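Hi there. Long-time user, first ticket. I'm pasting a complex I've been working with (about 1368 residues overall). I'd like to know whether the download I got is complete or cut off, because the file seemed smaller than I expected. Thanks.
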Amino acid sequence: MLIVMSYNAGEEEIDAVVKAVEEMGYKAKPIPGGERTAIGVLGNTGYVDDVIIRDLPGVQEVIHVSKPYKLVSRAFHPQSSIINVCGVEIGEGCRPVVAAGPCAVESEEQIVKTALAVKAAGADLLRGGAFKPRTGPHTFQGLREEGLRLLALAGKESGLPIVTEVMSPESVGIVAEYADLLQVGARNMQNFDLLREVGRIEKPVLLKRGMSATIEEFLAAAEYILAEGNPNVILCERGIRTFETATRNTLDLSVVPLIKELSHLPIMVDPSHATGKRSLVPPMSKAALVAGAHGILVEVHPEPEKALSDGPQSLTFQGFDKLMEEVRKLNQFLGYGAEKDA
Amino acid sequence: MLIVMSYNAGEEEIDAVVKAVEEMGYKAKPIPGGERTAIGVLGNTGYVDDVIIRDLPGVQEVIHVSKPYKLVSRAFHPQSSIINVCGVEIGEGCRPVVAAGPCAVESEEQIVKTALAVKAAGADLLRGGAFKPRTGPHTFQGLREEGLRLLALAGKESGLPIVTEVMSPESVGIVAEYADLLQVGARNMQNFDLLREVGRIEKPVLLKRGMSATIEEFLAAAEYILAEGNPNVILCERGIRTFETATRNTLDLSVVPLIKELSHLPIMVDPSHATGKRSLVPPMSKAALVAGAHGILVEVHPEPEKALSDGPQSLTFQGFDKLMEEVRKLNQFLGYGAEKDA
Amino acid sequence: MLIVMSYNAGEEEIDAVVKAVEEMGYKAKPIPGGERTAIGVLGNTGYVDDVIIRDLPGVQEVIHVSKPYKLVSRAFHPQSSIINVCGVEIGEGCRPVVAAGPCAVESEEQIVKTALAVKAAGADLLRGGAFKPRTGPHTFQGLREEGLRLLALAGKESGLPIVTEVMSPESVGIVAEYADLLQVGARNMQNFDLLREVGRIEKPVLLKRGMSATIEEFLAAAEYILAEGNPNVILCERGIRTFETATRNTLDLSVVPLIKELSHLPIMVDPSHATGKRSLVPPMSKAALVAGAHGILVEVHPEPEKALSDGPQSLTFQGFDKLMEEVRKLNQFLGYGAEKDA
Amino acid sequence: MLIVMSYNAGEEEIDAVVKAVEEMGYKAKPIPGGERTAIGVLGNTGYVDDVIIRDLPGVQEVIHVSKPYKLVSRAFHPQSSIINVCGVEIGEGCRPVVAAGPCAVESEEQIVKTALAVKAAGADLLRGGAFKPRTGPHTFQGLREEGLRLLALAGKESGLPIVTEVMSPESVGIVAEYADLLQVGARNMQNFDLLREVGRIEKPVLLKRGMSATIEEFLAAAEYILAEGNPNVILCERGIRTFETATRNTLDLSVVPLIKELSHLPIMVDPSHATGKRSLVPPMSKAALVAGAHGILVEVHPEPEKALSDGPQSLTFQGFDKLMEEVRKLNQFLGYGAEKDA
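Hi, the file is complete. Here it is re-exported in full:
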């Protein structure tokens, strides 16, 4: 930690800061600069809470060198983590995976049909929402428990592990009964009670980045889960909110290689929610894979024009077949076996 | 609702859209334009879910004229709502209120001392966090139930109603036992299960705007609470996330008069979290009141330099006294009696 | 300047950084921390270009303690600057000024009529655009030189100094012939050739904040003007671009007290462009003044519904009269004489 | 154009709007809706200026169906444009090009050495800045005319066409004398006088997207150039400004396929400025190509650690060689001949 004093801070103020640092159990080392003095804090072995310091007279700024997360960092855990979802391995060195399915589970026919279609096309996981977060209360909110049951049925029929969203701490139990991978959605990335709760189970968690979350906050949210004892976290970039409205969100693809530098956790990409436009999903899926993503989440619906949510960003079965064909070739180019079972 | 067709959409595509609209039970009225055709949807009495339409061939854009909220809108409920918190009235026409107190409840001495001080200075409500949302898991998370008890004690000793944050659906019950006004924080503005749960109680709710929530999403979040039956919602602007990092957030003060046009609910402002800097709190508090806010939330701490969270944005007792003196004069200037009990 | 080394940087890398700093003529002081070493740079008397350092092996981050501006900073020039525009004084301690007029000069009748009306209502300066920056090339671009002539005429008839925008270095001469205060618009805040050119004249300059400019960039842009020799710069907050589209821009009012801490230059506010909505202009004008702004810019048009640009945010004469009445009372409350010539 | 009336607008107000539309020479068609009336505007053949309408009593919103650009749109010009820069073809169907070189021209040795190195590695164009836009006035501003001369020399020695930035209308002439492709930088994307000036020359222009420019504004800026008669415009995405500070900007890669839908102009990507980090440049370069970009701009410097600007984002010669090898393979995979002269 570095404490920057204001340009007109006197010796007395500098001494007071030094004393406060020492009372916290650390060493303080003043560094007189051209215009102002800075004070280095030594002896800490992790993040130092700066609340006492920031407010002393003459202090201009407190700069943290350590980060608010540790367990998720590559510095702490240099080896890349591979997360196993019912036999599907996700992480560095593994062939990138594809999770596909409708935004929302709507009926047995819809979800089973989709599961079989995406399985046939080569998907690794089945995605589908049973609990749906929606901006307003007057729109379709998901089939809830019934949706979970149908999703599990479709998973069984297709042989695909299933991933679905959990929206509150008290439903972690019921969702974990059915799901193979529990998704924490963007709106809940800082629902800390929910993070702690999924940290107490053993099943893997897919944590989506919040709409306006920095990388540091994203990793600190994952830290909540690991801190409770669950190391099986997969991160997912799904677009951030910016001034641009031509796409639903702004896909921040540069975080893929960046997160791989900062953390050992796998990182997937959701081009469907990020762009909100069907025609942009295939190019951004491929861009994500080339940028190094460990997998993608793609919305697929038997009849997108009749979908109860997010129709415009869902691929048709035919569109998904075509995408998977391109993904297979791309994976082969990137050095992964073309076929899952090859 | 207006459906804009792409410039090269043919008659067949237009007819298909008309048919789909009619199947939904509405009337469709094609409006041929200079470059493309638009189709007006008539006969709806509220928000129309557009998922079937958006995806038909030839559809370029669907424009909603109705909003995803209704109960909170001034169009639906023209008269301004006054929310009563244990005798303190909040809303249009009432003297703006001041809720003051520490970011977090830390000890009995700290909270009681602060309660008596802010009461003496003229505050109307006591604020303090028992459950604290924090970016990382390794920092102080609040005293929880013990914090609620201490807060209630301080409320009793000072005679001030208390406002505190509730972070999950399952703790609504316990928080409602102690609190007079339940706060839903910015990070939980779209925690829909929590919104529904506070919608089922009778106590008033202070709903803070999410860090990257639009006004429309903010009002739609309030709609969740009203839709469950609780009409006692107070909105609170607390700064949004932008590219600017010189302040903690960007206080979006223009929403105060704007929300007063769009909704009948009261709107308060939190200049402490918005700016993150003690020196900016007094000028922005006064600016909020002049802009028409129905109240402000101000962080006050007996020893800000020792606060366990948000010290740099907390006022000292002396600073708060000075602010309240200015607020009293300003309220008098704005036409409200200077004294609460005048 | 502080150089933060990565957690696994070895002694050799630290030594190389120390050597590089010394070759630049400064002293380097390594500060070993709990997790990593930081290196303080001493002996500099201003901003240090970090390009050589940032890229050395083992360097994680370079943190600047000094700022990229100096002449505009309060640290360098503690006394507040008062800018005199033809006898109208703008700055700390002076009664806040009001610049009013149409977005664009459209005709002699329009501008003269408006000038007389805003003068009668109590405005201090006449604003009006002769050169208009417009998003697309197919809309009205201003009357250009003819507009300047008409604006000067209206200034003369009303006795008001005039402020108008200059859009390119080569038109600084012609604009300076007519204008009393030259405005550099938000889109040109980093048009450095233009900044240098207005830095070489003697007339005062009103520098608007760029749509996505940080405070640091805003002040660094002003530094360009002062560095060329023109100390007469007035800053102007006019709203920044954020995700929120309910208002035209997001008025970042907190920068008013913040800039007063960081710089000695006066700061004005333009609530018309910031909000884009007529009904929001009066409340935000008053909020700006209470927050400490040294003046406001308000769009006024004889017939806003016929304005060739920005009609929806322009006040009518009647609306402006009403606002000025409120402004006068507010100024009196704030301790300034109610009347300009009192 | 569609005019949405407020929910309580009466017949009189609707009639007034209809009349105003008709006075503008268009037809108006009222469409009574469930909650409010909308009025369609017919008969226009392009963008309609809405200033008269927006401000009439009872008007809530004016929605444009037509866009503020036309010449750049694919609707108007369905066939993709191929821009020829001294024999290098850029656009749909052509092998993606690579422009490489230092951020700033620093010396004859530096630029010639770099030119020969990037040519040997397979680059198609040489980039380098002679006029440099810098945040503050106290940092290196470029070698200016001398830089142009050196750049041209390096272009000649290496046989590569050169691309360099022009910062003001009056220097368009001198830059066009030397450059084969004139770059308009992000900060000048709405410097309309500059856009017009490069619209009057015949040489091709590389237009970078502004830091906070929407796609619509970006295309409207290009429209300025085409409207003056120069059809040779290449667009360039270089990252937008968001709340995220972990990267220098946020690379908005989704605009690549989106712009290809909206416009016939080629679109390139600058991963160096977008990310600001050397390690992110190769993955994002490849992601850009897979997303469909017509080329990339990459910063390369013989000794990045000594670069006078943007060192941390520049590749070394060795790093660039490695990237080009990967790019060649990727281009081959994407169906383009691996070798330029193959």
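A couple of notes from our side: Confidence is low (pLDDT under 50) at residues 338-342 of chain B. The first strand of chain B starts at residue 2 and ends at 5.
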